[in-house]
């Protein structure tokens, strides 16, 4: 482990956290998460949360964090529901959309004034997302809008292959739906509005007077969380509590590895401060 495991030597100006597999898994906080976040708050260091999971909106995530003992203003949470709607507003404000998604994204699109349709002859944008109600009927609508009528483009909320769950289980995520649509239509997804797209970091740092170079992105996935930080020059920290493993890190080139690797997330607090805080790994 010593060839790759490293921890910070001082605090950063702001901390951006993935949630699923990093702060919590299922309905349980991961070891050390609560005391770490509380320590950052005590030092008035900004904390922001990101998630590629579009099955909840920011308000629902805030409720979950509060329920787990981490009260969080909704403004400190950004997920792909937020970035997808903002991208459409900026790039296709008058589009008729067809979201293959769950209710939070549909609700946000409606609230933003977008028309949602299942009529392939009028759909401008097909949105592939994490959808546990995906079925052949939905694939047919996307196929007709993109291939038969040749009018719709394909975008995605996130590129994740699966969503982690406790016990090592998971569920197929948006990547499987993207692949199905691409396979039958011959088209390519033109925009991914989740990590590793830097739009996620831009959205999370909005309103903070901090230099991104003095911030750290913390997550459990090399292809999304860590890659986004690497692409933007931001420091990165990977937890070993979610998807990625030490073997995954070792398989990467040196310049593609996270700056820090943590066997528990509270080691983001520099170890030199632990004695004065009265902390131990057994707490």
Automatic annotation (TrEMBL):
GO terms for MF: phosphatase activity
Coiled coil residues, start to end: none
Matches recorded under Pfam families: Hydrolase_6 (PF13344), Hydrolase_like (PF13242)
A Gene Ontology term for the protein's cellular component: cytoplasm
Protein name according to UniProt: HAD hydrolase, family IIA
């Amino acid at each position: 482990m010593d060839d790759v495991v490293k921890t910070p030597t001082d605090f950063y100006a702001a901390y951006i956290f993935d949630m699923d597999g990093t702060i919590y898994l299922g309905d349980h906080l991961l070891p050390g998460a609560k005391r770490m976040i509380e320590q950052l708050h005590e030092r008035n260091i900004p904390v922001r949360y990101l998630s590629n999971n579009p099955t909840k909106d920011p308000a629902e995530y805030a409720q979950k964090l509060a329920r787990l003992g981490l009260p969080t203003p909704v403004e400190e949470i950004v997920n792909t529901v937020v970035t997808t709607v903002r991208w459409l507003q900026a790039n296709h404000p008058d589009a008729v959309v067809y979201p293959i998604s769950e209710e939070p994204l549909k609700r946000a699109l409606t609230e933003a004034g977008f028309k949602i349709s299942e009529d392939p002859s009028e759909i401008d944008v097909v949105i592939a997302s994490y959808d546990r109600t995906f079925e052949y009927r939905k694939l047919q609508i996307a196929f007709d809008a993109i291939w038969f009528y040749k009018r719709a483009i394909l975008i995605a909320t996130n590129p994740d292959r699966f969503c982690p769950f406790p016990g090592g289980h998971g569920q197929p995520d948006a990547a499987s739906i993207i692949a199905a649509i691409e396979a039958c239509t011959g088209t390519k997804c033109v925009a991914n509005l989740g990590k590793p797209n830097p739009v996620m970091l831009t959205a999370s740092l909005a309103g903070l007077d901090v230099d991104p170079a003095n911030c750290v992105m913390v997550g459990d996935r090399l292809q999304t969380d860590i890659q986004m930080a690497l692409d933007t020059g931001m420091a990165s920290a990977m937890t070993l509590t979610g998807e990625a493993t030490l073997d995954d890190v070792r398989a990467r080139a040196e310049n593609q590895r996270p700056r820090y690797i943590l066997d528990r997330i509270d080691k983001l607090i520099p170890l030199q401060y632990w004695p004065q805080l009265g902390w131990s790994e057994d707490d």
